[in-house]
Amino acid sequence: MGLNQIIEANMTQKTCILVGAPVDSGKKRRGCLMGPDAYRVAGISEALNDLGHRVTDRGNLTPALIDPPKGAPGHLHAPAETIGWTITLAQAAEEAMHSGLPILLGGDHSLSLGSVTGVANYAASINRPQFVLWLDAHSDYHTPHSTASGNLHGTPVGYLAGREGFDGFPEVKNPVPQENICLLGLRSVDGPERETLQQTKIHCHDMREIDETGIAKPLAGFLAQVARANGMLHVSLDVDFLDPSFAPAVGTTVPGGATMREAHLVMEMLHDSGLMTSLDLVELNPFLDEKGRTAQVMVDLTASAFGRRVFDRPTRAYS
Questions:
Q1: Which pLDDT tens digit goes with each residue over 7-20?
Q2: Could you tell me if residue 217 is inside a domain?
Q3: Which terminus of the chain has fewer Cβ atoms in its 10 Å neighbourhood, N or C?
Q4: Known active-site residue 153
Q5: Residue 317 within a domain
Q6: Which residue in 109, 142, 234, 271 is the catalytic one?
Q7: Would you state the pLDDT for residue 71?
Q8: Is 50 annotated as catalytic?
Q9: Residue tagged active-site, from 81, 283, 289, 300
Q10: Is position 313 within any domain?
Q11: In which element (H, E) is residue 270 found?
Q12: Which of the following is catalytic: 94, 240, 280, 289?
């Protein structure tokens, strides 16, 4: 992307479609259902409006009601509810793409089972390739049969990539090609999952690599790939991508995550590229937060992705 294109992308007013997804069925620890309203209280609409974007808030969704799936492993936690959410969110995400840039306010990471398949269906309808940037400590490449925990928030990348074993889930009509997926910030991947990933074309960048080369290099390479393909880019930001020292409100804390500056750099680069077409904000558990600190951090990061500059950031006292 040339300088003129970057400047033009930065100046474009976007229509941001906020979609509340209080999904709390993808894992056993409760609390993520409070996430969407925590983002609202932390001022996500105001932050985007202040940057010159139009904001529409469509409120909170509810899952479709379905019967328990036949053939699903018995150790899965709440599979019927998660499938119901997948149906609802796929429809909502695809529909929102017609109106603007959907921002899914989660909710645990199982919401991406629906959000990504929905936006991928939209991309296919206009003959553009779908790409996914997964900002997460975990790879989430399990299937319902391979997950030892039974928590379906560890399966969305496997689902959107078209892995088999998702009995009872909607058919993935437009799976995202492996080479169009980038996992950035990895630091907690179990052995079997790691071995499976190593046999794929998925771009995997762990914190060791980021420590050695910086976070900008792998991200810039992936964004260049998206730009060359005229792709649509879905970004899925998990709270546990961040170091828990400043983002504690997540049930899957893993020390050694992205620093505040690394995280803002990622979002600033996304804004500069002008490539992001949809966004998930996931795994915020306000029950575990400290005076709304993590919710505010996630809102600030979202603002960076939509044009807030380094020297425009407000001071936060967290008191």
A1: 444 458 999 999 99
A2: yes
A3: C
A4: yes
A5: no
A6: 109
A7: 80
A8: no
A9: 283
A10: no
A11: helix 260-273
A12: 240
The whole-angstrom separation of Cα 264 and Cα 57 is: 24
Residue 219 has pLDDT above 80, yes or no: yes
Q: Do residues 60 and 20 make contact, with C-beta atoms less than 8 angstroms apart?
A: yes
Told to judge if 238 belongs to the known catalytic residues of this protein, a careful annotator would answer: yes
Decide if 262 is catalytic: no
**Residue holding tokens 């989430």?**
140
In a domain, 168, yes or no: yes
CA distances from 206 to 133, 219, 220, 236, 271 (A): 14, 12, 15, 16, 23
Options 138, 205, 264, 271, the catalytic residue: 138
Task: Tell me how many domains the chain contains.
Answer: 1
Catalytic: which of 24, 81, 140, 300?
A: 140
Residues contacting residue 32 through CB under 8 Å, at least 6 positions apart? 22, 23, 24, 106, 107, 108, 251, 282, 283, 284, 285
Sequence-ordered list of residues with C-beta below 8 angstroms from that of 201, at least 6 positions apart, any chain: 177, 178, 179
Active site residue 140: yes
Take residue 132 and report the two structure tokens written for it: 């996914």
Q: What is the mean pLDDT of residues 140-167?
A: 95
- The single residue of 94, 108, 193, 238 carrying the catalytic annotation is 238
Instruction: Give the range of the structural domain holding residue 230, as residue numbers without chain letter.
Output: 3-308
